[in-house]
Amino acid sequence: MRRPVPLILLLGPLLVAGCTTDSAAPAATPSAPAATPSPTVAAVDYAAWEAGRSTPVADPVYPARGTDAVDVLHYDLALEWAPSTTTLTGTATLRIRPVKDASNLVLDFMPYQLDGVTLDGATVPGTVAKEKLTVSAPVVADKPVTLVVTYHGRPRTTPMPSHRKDTEALGLTLTKEGGLWTMQEPFGAFTWYPANDQPSDEALYDIRVTVPAGWSAIASGTPAGQSGTTFTYRSTDPVATYLTTLAVGKYQKLTATGPRGVPLTFWYRKGADDKLLPYLKKSPQYLAWLEKKFGPYPFPSGGVVVVDSASGMETQQMITMGRKIENTTARRDRWGSDLLHEYTHQWFGNSVTPTTWTDLWLNEGWAKYAQDLYTQETLKLSEASLDRYLREGDAVLRKKLGPPGRPDPKRFAEGNVYLCPAAMLREIHRELGDKAFFALARAWVQDQRNTQQDRASFIAFVNKQTGRDFTALINAWLDSKTTPKKIAVG
Hints:
Strand order of the largest sheet: 6-5-9-3-2-12-15-14
Largest sheet: 8 strands, mixed
Mean pLDDT: 92
């Protein structure tokens, strides 16, 4: 997600965000039909989705979201959007590895009307209440199953647990023109498909979206073709639910080629988004700069879809950027700077994902620091000005919001998890020098591609990679209530 405290505000005061929320969804929907005997079902080769295997961990920050009892290997989503009735119709086929023996399956899901639920081909009872889908059928640990859920209804959002001024309610959002878009960090994927909506359970995806003639559908993943008015996308690298995206509208498409021939696709609305085209067209330049710092772009394609938001989101392979992001002369290229921030997340957060939301700083600290380095380089700012900005900003945010390693569930993704860990990375950078620091950064994202990591694994990696002991420095910057002084490194 875009950081709220830009380096370019060295010329002005630090900004601190305020709050927006939306109403919760209805409490329940009618149950799906009762169980019927299972027909003969052909054996399924679940090895085909082995790359989607994860080790789910119960999230301590948002324990009501997701579960450590199931590991979704693959989501196959067949969706249809009808703007005239604002109805989303879906068939979600989930390949699931139960982690524990259980009497039922529980997933996050918005109360849509259930049209049917089957498990391994047999119709089973399913109910949706309080944003949870409960499938009443026993499962056995490590014996994969296929769950199919068919549903329809009008999309609804869920409240955002933050006080930031540039965020809206989470999940699938309707536009005035009858289109759709979504941002869903830290959760909200469940507003358009049944999901294990937490960062530790990454999965593979196939998404097909059918829209009326003249409309386009955009989703995360690699474009896999268009048949009539059905648009298809595929993710062969595992994706956390918060990193999926869906947008429907009367879009124009623009293509480009990134470093090493990586195909890029940009979706925008003619007229409304014309002023943003220069920034979209700079994407190959942004990616080339990032590759020099962090190694090859980690996915087979990339792109951007522009939506009616005031924020941006690093959704995997298809960044979701708000056209309402403030971009004035005083902000000195804010929209383009934020786009580079979201591209940085393709390495930090997408390819290497935090195990729980406790370690959001692992995503945002790296993306913020990369963004500050890019701004420093392009505006030719001094080393002293960057140091001063980070330390002064750290003091303000740490006092207001607390240390970045102990996030407040009610203040998700506010300034302390961006700037404070960026200041910590600045200290590591100064201690190591350019060559060793960027070798460390490249190794972190390249050696641990498509994994979930946390504070302990980061500290262990830094110490092993550098041959020095940064434990005290990292813990102090993550846990201290005040800006740390100089900390000796072993």
